[in-house]
Specification:
With 238 residues, this protein is an alpha+beta fold. It has seven helices and eleven strands. It has three domains: 54 residues; 95 residues, PH-domain like; 52 residues. The strands form three sheets. Strands 3-1-2-11 form a four-stranded antiparallel beta sheet. Strands 4-5-6-7 form a four-stranded antiparallel beta sheet. A three-stranded antiparallel beta sheet has the order 8-9-10.
């Protein structure tokens, strides 16, 4: 029978005191979930509500998993439907606007100066061509970056020749922040920065995405649903 436990300890990432409520069937499961959340356990106590609800002597405890096939009990394995994307997108090419403007503006200015000097026409032609491969590379790098949100995790795929995959379990998300520069508001994009308890990538930006407010809300809702399904509630106590 799963029960709620209150775990107090220290956040390994920040060193701040923290308290977490975890639903599990044994102390071993509680310690395992606390470790996944990055919490150094100080104490584990049975939730007060669970203590009041414990059966009296001679009473049989109801099995909360009755009617559930035994092979699925205690499993946190995501079902195929939980991995269907709730949202997917990529960085907007508007992020390249400043770099492209500076590069092509400089090239045009250099060409204008060199064409006024005799015997420098070949260099002017070369300067006019040089920005093209660099601009194409920046376009391709953003084009091949892909963001994906499911009910279980957030994925970022990137890279041109060598592909990289970064993932954050959705229940590890602690907070999100939204950045909307003035020029980004004009074209309808923004950046959502994700703060999580993930040890390898605690801060993950989703840069230059369309509809950033809606994406941020989708992440919040998915995080809450995942924590309810796992019986996990994380509270930072400073």
């Amino acid at each position: 029978m799963s029960r709620r436990f209150t775990v107090t300890g220290t956040d390994q990432a920040t060193g701040a005191p923290a308290s977490v409520t975890i639903r599990a069937g044994s102390l071993g499961e509680v310690e395992a979930v606390a470790a996944e959340l990055g919490l150094k356990v100080g104490s584990i106590e049975l939730d007060a509500g669970e203590q009041a609800a414990e059966p009296q002597s001679g009473e049989a405890a109801a099995d909360p998993l009755s009617g559930v096939p035994s092979e699925t009990r205690g499993s946190n394995t995501a079902t195929p439907s939980s991995e269907e994307p709730l949202w997917s997108g990529r960085p907007s090419q508007w992020l390249n606007l400043g770099s492209w403007a500076a590069l092509f503006g400089g090239a045009i200015a250099a060409v204008a100066v060199l064409t006024t000097v005799s015997n420098w026409g070949w260099l002017a032609a070369a300067l006019a061509i040089v920005p093209l491969p660099w601009a194409g590379w920046r376009w391709l790098r953003l084009r091949l970056t892909r963001y994906e949100l499911t009910r279980e995790r957030i994925r970022v795929r990137s890279g041109v020749f060598t592909r990289h995959l970064e993932e954050i379990e959705i229940y590890r998300v602690k907070d999100t922040e939204l950045t909307l520069a003035f020029w980004q508001r004009l074209v309808g994009i923004g950046t959502v920065v994700i703060h999580s308890s993930d040890q390898t990538r605690p801060i993950l930006p989703l840069a230059g995405i369309a509809g950033p407010e809606q994406v941020r809300e989708s992440i919040r809702q998915a995080c809450e649903a995942s924590r309810r399904a796992r019986g996990v509630r994380e509270l930072d106590v400073s």
